[in-house]
Amino acid sequence: MFEVYFTKTEDQGGAGLGLFIVKTRIEALKGSIEIIENELKPTGVTFKIIFPFSKIDHG
After folding, report:
1. How many Å apart are CA 2 and CA 19, to the nearest integer?
2. Rounded distance between C-alpha atoms, residue 1 and residue 21, angstroms
3. 16-48 burial, b if ≥16 CB within 10 A, otherwise e?
4. What is the percentage of the chain residues whose pLDDT exceeds 70?
5. 16, 45, 50: which is closest to 32 by C-alpha?
6. What is the average pLDDT score of the chain?
7. pLDDT band, residue 41 (cuts 50/70/90)
8. How far apart are the C-alpha atoms of 24 and 40, rounded to whole Å?
């Protein structure tokens, strides 16, 4: 799903770049993105996005 030019709806248009771009931008910021299975929501998709951070001491 995160591959360049991936699309499940060719007939609806789109270049298949959206999630590829999102993933590369998140990874450039040292983050990660993954697909989460949601048994309570059989349609659609849920993503988990994690960004590392560190506390800055302004003292």
Report:
1. 5
2. 12
3. eeebbeebeebeeeeeebeeeeeeeeeeeeeee
4. 69
5. 50
6. 80
7. confident
8. 29
pTM above 0.90, yes or no: no
CA dist., res. 45 & res. 23, Å (int): 15
Contact 4, 22 (CB under 8 A): no
Per-residue model confidence as pLDDT tens digits over 19-34 = 888 899 999 999 999 9
Q: For the chain, what's the residue count? A: 59
3-state DSSP assignment of residue 27 = helix
Closest CA relative to residue 3, chosen from 30, 31, 27, 24: 24
